[in-house]
Structure formats: structure tokens, C-alpha cells
Amino acid sequence: MNRYRMHINGESVEAQGGAWFPVYDPSTEEIIAEVPDADEHDVNRAVQAARAAFDSGPWPQTTAQERGRILLRLAERIRKELAALAELESRNSGKPIVEAEYDMADVATCFEYYGGLATKVMGHVNPVPDNALSLSLREPVGVAGQIIPWNYPLLMAAWKLAPAVAAGCTCVLKPAEQTPLTALEMARWLADMGLPPGVVNIITGFGETAGAPLVRHPEVNKIAFTGSAAVGKLILKSAAESIKRVTLELGGKSPNIFFADADFEAAIDGALFGVFINQGEVCSAGSRILVERSIYSHFVEAMTEKAKRIKLGTPLQRETKMGPLVSKEQYERVRSYQELGKQEARLVAGGGRPAGMDKGYYVEPTIFCDVDNSARIAQEEIFGPVAAVIPFQNEAEAIRIANDTPYGLAAAVWSRDIFKAFRVVKALRAGIVWVNHMQPTYVEAPWGGYKQSGFGRELGPWGIEEYLETKQVHINLNEQPIGWY
Ligand code: ADP
Ligand code: MG
Questions:
Q1: d(C-alpha 146, C-alpha 74), whole Å
Q2: 470 alpha carbon to ligand 2 midpoint, in Å?
Q3: With the C-alpha atoms ordered 322, 327, 331, 334, is the resulting torsion angle positive or negative?
Q4: CA of 32: how far to CAs of 4, 137, 185, 346, 476, in Å?
Q5: Is the dihedral of CA 333, 338, 342, 345 positive or negative?
Q6: Is the CB of 212 under 6 A from ligand 1?
Q7: Which of 231, 329, 332 to mutate to test the pocket of ligand 1 (most atoms within 8 A of CB)?
Q8: How far is it, in rounded angstroms, from Cα 54 to Cα 74?
Q9: How far apart are the CA of 441 and the centre of ligand 2, in A?
Q10: Bridge partner list, 173
Q11: What are the C-alpha distances in Å from 163 to residues 64, 116, 141, 254?
Q12: Please, are residues 224 and 231 in contact by the beta-carbon 8 Å criterion?
């Protein structure tokens, strides 16, 4: 059996208790590797290593230039290994190989971006009315606990690690239990890139046994989490105990809004891409498709027609546009929403398991139309290829339906009328709004949600802010005593 070890204090280690758990290829349902099943002892060991690396040793002395260069070297290494990493990612997560290749390129770009940004973190001189120099210094927040999901495994690791390292933090990263392999693969190169031991630690384990102790740990200063809203709530509560800083990205039920004046072909494509890319396992998936009444039936028909032609297949085939879902658990979850949808709305595409594919966690791209926005398939995040199409009468109704959700991660608006499109952009309560597109994501632009999609922003300069403290320093330039007493 192919065993991957964790990465703690620069060493490749097993769990102290000696337990392992299996990692699957979701297209074959077969075990492809085993990883250590970390518990609280392992978490403590990793946090101790991160704490020690933050408090003493070479890391606190490194310059921003040096930290930046480490990240740039890592980016270069990732580009060199791109094909192998993409294959491992595709195999472990089920995502189509072509998408995995895009992800790996984005991983490298993310490390590059923060490699460059490391030297652009600036302090400030505060204009105080005294003979004094008042400074705001930016300092790393300390030890960061980072917990990530399984849909973009290495990319989510990069979004967390890159800004943290650039800022001078140290990290304990826990990948999702379903998809730990690419992060562990990358861990092997960290020392060669010049990263001192203990700066980046990667532990593998389950949420309750490895994630929760990391969140609880009093020596961890900040938790960055991407995952479900249910777990986000637990994390926020647990972090209260030691007043940790928290950033949360908790997914959504994002509206993709189509006005009658949108380019029709582009709209159909955008509706499908918005909800079915990466098997619909996307936190910003445009899973509620709002369509203006006057084009509604034509739109549903065209979308259905095209959805039926989406090429499902094994992830490593280059023609594949949709692979299996990541796990048995996720498969069962999505299947149950497909069944629920049949009671709540009208099924027009998919709705089950694809015929002739007996192995693997495949589900058909599924479209429900005439969905009422209060239906569970319109309110609950499914995290799979299930679209709820909802008609609307006019702009006001589109906005009302779009915002009628506890979430607020993303949204998209399609129209040729820039005035209307921008009125809608302003009315939407969401952290990311696309116009005439859905999903493009750039490391230069902020990512994060409103409402129950969480708080904090990743990427761009916003991403590094979340790993920085501000220290006010006052330097008195008066040589006389204060003279008060
Ligand atoms: P899903 O249910 O789709 O797997 P989760 O939110 O459960 O989404 O998982 C996202 C990440 O959160 C994973 O790394 C998982 O191990 C972790 N996690 C799950 N439960 C907890 C918890 N109670 N405390 C900390 N982390 C958790
Ligand atoms: Mg879970």
C-alpha cells in the first residue's frame, strides 16, 4: 500500500497512535493510498512545532525578501511537477484532468503572487500632534490553523499557506480527509525551497479528531477555514474560548441571473458552466438559475439539451467534462437531493446515476425547473451537479429571489444593458458578483462572502491582511521629563 506521511517540524511522520486511514479513487471506489489518522497528540505536536518556529530559530529573523523567494521557488517547483501533481489531484478527487491542470497552474500563480507581495507589506507613520514618531507596524499574527475542503485540494492549501508564509506566520494545515495527497506530495519539497522546519506543518485526519483539537488549541492564534456552514458554526464557537481570530468561507447557494436581453448562447453556456464545473462541487456554484419569464421555456429547453451532452467519464481522460463525486458520502448526499427534487419541482435533465457506469461515484448533471425558491433544493447547498431553475417576472423580483437565502458568497448577472446589470450588482448581497460570466477567479481579486457564507477575504492584498497584526509604536522625541508631577 502506498503510504504518505504527515509533515511535522520538517520531518515525515506517522501518527503517534500508529493508525492509518484509506484514501480513495472515487472513479473506481478503490483505495489508492493510506495516510496517518492524526489525533489530538499529533495536533499538539504540530502546533508545538509551529509555535517554536514562530517564537525562535531562523524564521522570525527571515526578511520579507527571503520569505518571498521561498514562495517563488515553490511556485517554480509546482510548475515543474505540474503534470504529475495534476494527475494525483485528478485521481484522488475525481475532477477531470484538464481542470486539475488549470488548478495546479493556479496553485503556482498563487505562490508567485504572495511571493511578490511579501515585500509590499507596509507600515504607516501616524500623524500624531506631538514631538514623537508614531508608527503602525505590521506583524505576523502567529500560528495559523488552516482547515480546508476537498473540492480544490491543493489550490485551497495554496490560498491558505501562501499569504500566511508571506506574512511570516507559521502554519498547521489540515487537508480534507478525502483528499490529502497533493498537499503531502508538496510537503516533501518544502525544505529544499528553504523553508525552515516547523513553519509549515501538514497533518492528516478527520474533522472531529484532528480539526477540532486544532481549533481548540490555545497556542493557535488564528483559524482559517473553508468548508460547510455547519462546521463553520462549530469552529466559531470553539474559537471563542481562546479569542482566536477566525476567517470563514462557508459556501453558498449562489444565484445566476439571466435577463431576456442577454446573449442567448453565452447565457446557456454560462448557466451550465456556473453550476456543473468541477461536478458542481464548487462553493460559488451558480446552483440557483434565475431566468426572466419571457425567455424561460426556450432557456430551459436549450439548457437541458446541452446538459444531456455533457461528457461524463473517467477523470484521467482528456475529453471528460465531468468526473465522479469525491466520495461515497457525497454521492449519497447528492443522490438524496436528486430524489428530493423530484418531489419539489419538475425534473428536466438527469436525476440519477448515469446508465452503464456501475463503478465510481458518478451522478448525472441534473436540472430541476419551476423551482420555488423556498424549496429545500433552492435553499440548501447540495455541492453537486444539481441546478434549480427559477423563473422571475422583472428586475425587482429577480433581486428579491436572489437575496432570499441565508448565504451570500457569489452571484452572477447576464444582460446587455449595463445600467440594469449594475443596478442588480449593487442590490445583490454577495461577496463576489460576476457580470456576463460566472466563476472566473483571480488571485489578484478578493474572495469571500456576505451573510452566512462567512467573513474575511482571501486572495489579493486582502488575503495577507488576515495574517497580519497591527502594532502601534510611539517613539518620544522630547528629551524633557513629562513634567506632570
Ligand atoms: P463536508 O461535509 O463537505 O466534508 P466539512 O465542512 O465537513 O465539509 O469539511 C471541511 C473541512 O472541515 C475538512 O477538512 C474536515 O475534516 C473539517 N472538519 C469537519 N468537521 C470539523 C470539526 N468539527 N472541527 C474542525 N474541522 C472539521
Ligand atoms: Mg463534514
A1: 19
A2: 34
A3: negative
A4: 11, 48, 14, 39, 63
A5: positive
A6: yes
A7: 231
A8: 20
A9: 25
A10: 146, 202
A11: 12, 11, 12, 26
A12: no
Residue 448 Cβ inside 6 Å of ligand 1? The answer reads no
3-state secondary structure (DSSP) of residue 42: helix
Hunting for cell 485540494 — which residue is that? 153
Strands 170-174, 200-202: pairing kind? parallel
Instruction: Per residue of the chain (485 residues), give pLDDT as tens.
Output: 799 999 999 999 999 999 999 999 999 999 999 999 999 999 999 999 999 999 999 999 999 999 999 999 999 999 999 999 999 999 999 999 999 999 999 999 999 999 999 999 999 999 999 999 999 999 999 999 999 999 999 999 999 999 999 999 999 999 999 999 999 999 999 999 999 999 999 999 999 999 999 999 999 999 999 999 999 999 999 999 999 999 999 999 999 999 999 999 999 999 999 999 999 999 999 999 999 999 999 999 999 999 999 999 999 999 999 999 999 999 999 999 999 999 999 999 999 999 999 999 999 999 999 999 999 999 999 999 999 999 999 999 999 999 999 999 999 999 999 999 999 999 999 999 999 999 999 999 999 999 999 999 999 999 999 999 999 999 999 999 999 99
pTM: 0.98
Q: Is the CB of 45 under 6 A from ligand 1?
A: no
